Records
---
Amino acid sequence: MILLGQQIENHFLEEVNRKSGSNVLECYQCGKCVSTCPVSNYMDFPPREIMQMVKLGLKEETYMANSMWFCLTCAACSGRCPREIDIPRVMEAIRHLAIGENADPDNPRVKQIRKFHEIFLDMIKRYGRNYELRMMAEFNIRTRNLFKDMHLAPKALLKGKIPLGHERVGRTKAIQRMFRMAEKLEETK
Amino acid sequence: MTTLTYFPGCSAHGTSEEFDSTLKLVMKTLGVQLEELPDWNCCGATSAHVMTENLALALPLRNLVLAERLPHKTMGIACASCYSRMKATKAEMDAHPALAQKINSTIVEEGTYKGNVEVKSMLQFFYEDIGTGQIKAKVTYPLKGLKVACYYGCLLTRPQRITRFDSPEYPMSMDHIMEALGATATPFDFKTECCGASFSISNTEVVLSLSGILLEMARESGAHAIVVACPLCQSNLDMRQPDIEKKSGITYRIPVLYITQLMALAFGYPLKDLKPAKHIVPIEPALAHIGEEIESPQKTPKSKKAVEAESEVE
Amino acid sequence: MARVGVFVCFCGANIADFVDVPAVVAEAKKIKEVKISVEYKYMCSDPGQQMIRDAIVQHRLTSVVVAACSPRMHEKTFRKALSDAGMNPYLLEVANIREHSSWVHQKDKKAATEKSCDLIRMAVAKSIANEQLHEISVPVTKRALVIGGGIAGIQAALDIADARIPVVLVEKSPSIGGRMAQLDETFPTLDCSQCILTPKMVDVASHPFIELLPYSEVLQLDGYVGNYKARIRRKASYVNFSSCTGCGACWQKCPVKVPNEFNMGIDKRKAIYSPFPQAVPNKPVIDAEHCTMLLKGKCGICAKVCEKGSIDYTMKDEIVEREIGAVVVATGYDLWDPKPYEEYGVGRFRDIITSLEFERMVSANGPTGGVPVRPSDGKVPKSVVFIKCIGSRDEAKGIEYCSKICCMYTAKHAILLHHKVHDSHAYVFYMDIRAAGKGYEEFVKRAQVETGVTYLRGRVSKIYQKGEKLMVRGEDGQLGQVVEVEADMVVLATAIYPYKDNPDLARLLGISYDQYGFLSEAHPKLRPVETAKAGIFLAGCTQAPKDIPDTVAQASAAAAKVCGLFADTTLKKDPMISVVNPEFCSGCQNCINVCPYQAIVTEDIPLGHGSKELRTVARINEGVCQGCGSCVAICRSMAISLAGFTDMQIINEVVAI
């Protein structure tokens, strides 16, 4: 059961609105986003319910949901939303707020997704461009699933689908500097 | 001779090499010069904007700034994901100059962003700048008999206020180009449904499910092959097809070709230039349909009531 | 010597809480011309008014100042009090010490009190220069024009005509009946629409006080309330109505087929046609845009088969004029085009139809014999999905408002489908069920319980084709599950929208319209059938979406307003209008250019007494002038003054501060 009425202000809603540029209060719960979203059945709470949770100020519960980690940013929902709410940006706002507050849903799949993104960004930091083979290898190692997609390896490598080598940007130091400055900016917010 | 600034994206020399190589062939035939953006960096793809705010804008911004050093007014981007990130960043920077200034001055040191280079996807460039007329004129090997399902994916036409290109629900630009090449574009209701995108590695189950649906609907539409303009879509539909077949128990064997591969073929380049070996699902069986007769569309029978109603008035 | 009475109202606590009324009263007494200054709790009440009346007599007052609420509230009340005491009502001035003082300066009682004193001082000074004005009488032509022959226009015309007032009813299509003639059965009674409508249509045709002008349109409306002149184009029908018997031989033989508008384009009609069997008048017309004879000079079959020789290809459009006292606009609604819903495959899938198309299909006199039928293959659908709010409540693709009737007619469609196709199943995707009228909730319950229709709460996100079926995808919000319905046919409840040319009609009549094109009422709550232009009234969906009971009520209300307007032989008008002094008028005509009501014309008067030479001056039409003052401001010769706001009155006010 959810208990309401103890707090008058809803800071969570204000933050989400500010970061996303949309007003979640406009959502009239029509559910078009839910049946549009290709991964709504994988989400703990589909987009419509996330909107309601934000409206009710249920910050902790929202952070623990896997919804914003499963969002593909395919933008099919916002294209159809009759109130023109930028739903992917709302998901992104919640996600960034969660990252900022170190909220981590204790969900193995979410952990995997986060790990993938961290590795990907690491590749860019090192090389300025993605090194696909290394990325896949590191992912397997870090998720303790050494043999994932191994069945693809022979064909993929033989056909040259996934190159063994990699390219890099001319001045990788410039890229690393970008990462540093970006982090600094994030902290000063 | 038009020159286009070319942004290849991280997969262009790797998993989507056949897209890159056939693109260059097609551009040669069309008389467009490509100048690869020097020292381009990864646009950040999905991971940057999922995990960060400023870095997600800075990485594409660096590329936009670098592009402004070249004299060409348009930058063409092959990968749909890179296109989406660059265009979204450009829209954000143009709409919020204060934010642009902040990111530019603190993170991106390659120059000051002016916003005077237009960003287009290759599909958009073919459709708007070249046009189906010119494309048709270069066809020496019409692809008559080949039925293709044109799959656009999420990012070529969405979000509409950023791409401002074709329809976000039922686009027809690729279909029209295919028809200009002589092929038949099948009516494919799932042309903009997501394939699973970046979950290919981290959440493979989703890709198998979503791409599986796409393969099923493409097959039901009667297509011999699927045409795409996005490396991630190609990878999900092609590389993962054996896994999908294993999971569903259905044999699809539908090859997934890049739009530039079919354009190159129609422009007269030999099959080997399409790099068929790169495909997990072989492309030759589908291409064998070229030259076959297509049956003419049947006329829908009039309803009994409608016929009665008409004869009544006679 | 001026003798002014000042009456200050407490207005309960409204004024008294923030203004020191006794102090104001005392301050007013200090003015030389003020002979009596009193206060009262509620000046507008009977005792309050009596106080004023008594004071006028007792103190032989020459003008009255009431310091109270806005004149918009009670100016009329106090003017009546003056005239009851035998004083010209325009010798009243109202000082608004509520809206202009106590309500807006609640934080500073001292300042509010000072301001109230100033306002009263100004009002006293102005009132001293007030002139005795008299209401103007304007003649009134007792004939009404009703534009639109749907149920709204029909009802208004009948009500006005029953009051023995002549009505001219103009309808743009060949027959009256409008949208209601297209309906099968109506909610919540399931009355056969034609059966309850046609008696009224026949009444209109046979009513001695109604002149029915079918196949006509209004071209121009000049004039002002009570004195309009309408120019109407009677389109050429090419059929001589007096000899035509409506036998139908002509349209049976006509070889030209045109999409049938009455049946929403589902089937075809001929170039010579009558829209539906119960048409009034029951005579065909020739559609000049498609008739081969009129376009190319070939064919002529209808003339050959007509036994009465009623066909006349040489007929021309006729322009007629009518003098009119009041107008009722009842031009009805159009359906919004659902084309923007690309995700539903609108335009691509033939088996997706609009609600009006479905209505025509289930109608006994419709194109499919009263049974719904798939346009693609003619089969009778078993699984039908109804989608509500198509365009309505959709800021992204359509319009923000709710179309009011779709929830009810969709429940009705579920019932009709069940009656016509016994082994069918209806599904309704909805966001809400709006059933606010009398018997409406009960009707929806009846639909749900009797037909087994499945209501699913959620907007449809996509429709795609699977073989012969349409797959309709949406969320069932109650279960929290995405569902897909295998449908044979999909019916879209598309939004009600004004006709595209409604704004043009509004401009023609000189009335306003909103951002969608709906005609604007004078006040949304208190004046729903009037427009801002005196003498022009609204009825039906041309003003806003509504159902038949509300339409009929609004039509009767408009008729009552018209009858009220015509109750006397003349109309009384506010005398606070502009007046030209021809002595000072130079004839520059600046005032004519600036008048928003076209109330000023030129007049040629003799140069001097008995002179033969003429000069041009301006003359203001008393009946049309609304007293806005634009001409007063622009007149460079200072020849125009506004009664009730003369220069002297204004100067007095300014000097008094």
---
Amino acid sequence: MTDHLKLTSSAVLIAGLCLFSLSCDSDYRLTAARPDVDPADVTQCPFIPIEGTRLSQYECNPVFTNTDEGWGGDVGSVGFHVTEVVGHPFYQMWYTSSPGGYGNYGMGYAVSADGTEWETDPTNPQFVSEPGAWDQDSVAGQVVVWDPIESQYVMTYQGFNLGNQQDPADDVWGLGVATSADGRSWEKHQANPVIDFGDYELGDDELFNVMFLGSEPSIKIKPCWPLTMTINERGAFRGYLAASRWTDIIDQSSGLTDTPASCDIYSMAGIDAGTWVIDDEQPLLTGNEIYDAKGVTSAAVVELEGVQYMFYIGFEEWFQSTGTSGLISAQRMTLNLATSEDDGVTWVKDANNPLPVNLTEPGEISNVGAQVIGSRIHLWVGDNYEGTSAIGYFYYEPAIAPHEAAFN
Amino acid sequence: MLKPTTRALLRTASVVLLLSLTGCASNAAPVTACDQLCDQLVDECGYPAFPDRISCLEGCLYNETEGADTDAHLSCVDEASCDTFIIVECENQHGANSND
């Protein structure tokens, strides 16, 4: 073999080895990376940016309306959770439904591999109204978290029993807790209601003393309803509820103001799922803007990159319904955002509140759920879709600048 | 008739090609639990949560760095037979945030 041939053969050999190296490279390119899937990559419809916000909305909303399961009716209250299956979100939803009126409710469960197409559990409803129970007339505002220490789901909810449905004196209202190992079979906590709102009432004598003798009420706040709760990786619970100051309630009762006191946000610590302590000293967030003047009906709190985000439904007015136990309810409801950079001690309302997602004017947004997935906060917002209560799907991107107007 | 030099070159090229093919075959990553898990989730069940198989594999490898027991996870997913309600619980029992 000549030197030239040896040289050429060597060149071919080296080129071949390079080719070999490149051709095999793909076998080793995979890295252990936490996925951050763009939701639009896995859904049938795109997400549309909402001008002036960091929000995008699913173009084919709503994503969940009626169960069509042969029980209940339209979807009522909704609680969301996400389990990341090998780093990819699988969505879970627990929802109440009822043929109408108080009582006779059921709790359904559904899952989705893309957040838009939902598969309802064939064993629904997972639990139903129990006659005579403290929560026989309603379970609502449910929030579900996964407790990694106890390896179980924990659900908190507002329950009530309206008694004879005429006299508020026999009503029972409170915070209920239920746990489940699989999301299907739920066991209600034996100490339910773990917060009995009746424990925060003032007796007639004390009311008289406060109203006419100027003494301080022994109880600072009266709960309106629970809002949401969170759990950290160490299994520590933190809750949020809406409550009114007794001094404000008494001012209204005395005729000093003509509308019910506002339902501001207070925090509470969960010693465990069944033991909660309300911090009644100071509200975390008060209704000092038009959009939350009368308080907050629903909230979801998540943490991303050291910042806590509270999406909440603020409302402007009370509505006095005639009939059942003289209940009052919220109206003119909008979605709003507040953030905290000191672990939830102080909160700052977003300058762009209210977030322009409500479908009706005035707004009829009923609830909000939020979950952090990768770099985004996924949101589910209950609203009035052409006369039907249904759930819309959105996401919020904290790291981006607000979306600019689209140019045509 | 090929020249001797051309024949030599062709022989070398053939050896290189053979080496490449056999080299790739022998160096290809063995079928891992992550491969099998993603076979189930992406190919068998066809869950849209996974934009592609690579994303699934990367997530699985990441879970392993976080302490997931992929073999046990795979066994659970196998038994789930694409029942999404059970698939979710397999993650809770054997995934990165489980107590396994």
---
Amino acid sequence: MTPLLEVRGIDKSFGPVQVLHDVTFSAYAGEVTALVGDNGAGKSTLVKCVGGIHPIDAGEIVFDGRPVQVHGPRDAGELGIEIVYQDLALCDNLDIVQNMFLGRERKSGLVLDEATMEELAGQTLEGLSVRTVKSIRQRVSSLSGGQRQTVAIAKAVLWDSKVVILDEPTAALGVAQTAQVLELVRRLADKGLAVVLISHNMNDVFAVSDRIAALYLGRMAAQVRTADVTHAQIVELITSGRSGDLGLKNGTAP
Amino acid sequence: MSKVKELPGEAVVTAAGAPSIVNSSRAYLERVRGGDMGALPAVFGLLVLCTAFAVARPSFLTAINFANLFTQGAAITVIAMGLVFVLLLGEIDLSAGFTSGVCAAVLAVTLTEMGLPWYVAVLAAIVSGLIIGTMLGTLVAKVGIPSFVVTLAAFLAFQGLALVLVNEGTNISINDPVIKAIAQKNLPPALGWGLYAACVAAYALVQLVRARKRARRGLVAEPLSLIAGRVGALAVVAGVAVYVLNLERSFNPELASLTGVPIVVPVILALLVLWTFVLGRTAFGRHLYAVGGNAEAARRAGIAVDRIRISAFVICSSMAAVGGIIAASRASSVDPNTGGSSVLLYAVGAAVIGGTSLFGGKGRVLDAILGGAVIAVIDNGMGLMQYGSSVKYLVTGFVLLLAAGVDALARKRAAATGLR
């Protein structure tokens, strides 16, 4: 199976500090790939390189088998790569539909086509089996943390996206809401999307992921199938970069 | 641009319950209790003030005074309508008052001193507003100076500019009949009724068509009874207003008859419809709210935040220019104090009293009109009761504080009930 998204040998420095060293990482359609690593390991930087927010110094990004240039968030969006950031980027004073279409409103002539947007938003949420919101015309300010996360994710999949990258989607959520969001993450992958899940929480990672990629000090320690490793091995990879015969050989999938 | 293929699922994401008037009013009450009071305080305040003044001074309720209210409040209301756009972004324009003064001076100079026709003068005034707005907006959005400071500087500078334009303090009279008519003349009574009928019919039509369209596509539509209620309320209120304005209000009707809706009223209505459409129905309006609500989210959504900021200032300053024209029309002259003294504070007060939040992200153009009415009623009623400027300022200041307090408390309450 060829990966849908593959980054090869990426280097990234901020001034004198090299944050990513020759990182290789792949995400497969229909699978959840967890990206783990300690604080400062370079998870967010890697994601931002893929999303076009940081230009890469060396290496290449391969999408669907062909090398691509990602120079900005718009390029990433056109390829079908959507990133859901930790701070969600929703407008509290707008409703769910308005937020989902923000910046990409449907128009008929000069006027906003509210009915079409509402239909599409409703269908998308329905397709994700989201049943927790009362009305899609509710302001986002009235939603719970889990519901907000749901809206942010739905916003990302509304655009025919092929890769959805979630930056710590459950970090601020309670137990029940975390379960809801993880279920949604699983469903995204089951629909055929390549999902990248950044998380600190090993329980979440083992609950939903098919593969785990562990970054250690800016290097890819290992990328393994979740079924092949134990909890303890991943923790070891995160904290010391190696675990037994695993670790610090720049990982492609076994 | 297609969405993910949905599972053949049950229809789940619809609004709570069937659309009925009971549900709608319950939802409204819930919103109010949650701190989203909208125009409620302004309408309530207006009723209280009018009742109080009517009891204290029966002359408050005469037709001539009712007509005066409109012409007195018009300039401030129009400036406030422009300020709503800047306030929506959480910014402020302290120079709007003197912007209106400068633009009025441009009008007077082109009209009286250069002898150009009225439409050229009006164009010159509005273009001045556009230029001022572009300048202020660029300084705020591109250079990054806080709007408070930029417009405070402009507040001072424009006083000087107005002085230069009117030759260090003389006043320029305006004799053009068209310009003077804006705030001084009235529509013929028949035309007033015609306009009334057209407005009510158009409002009803827009509401019905929207509800029908939504219902046909299986979306939650407003119940017919609610639309009927709203249209009915508009018909009654506007009908009474037009009727009263069409009464004879001259002290000596044989000498000079004085009836009809003041011409500023349709002018303000047209601006209201225009800007309400822009804010509510266009992508630009949506982006304005988005930038006011969460500028970072708007930026990530690909919205050109700087451009939105600049255009808000441009709209504000051009509306100030329109306000200046109305003020010049009412006074038949322009002097260095046009748009000065309390004009700006009244205008900001009008927007805030009407329910526009100073914190950004919340407000409508209609707010400015309701708030402007409150300010005009206070000003007018206190005048009738022969209170001096001292009491007027005290009371208006208190009302503004009250409105800002209601806004702040509503936010707190909304935070407490989770509606924020």
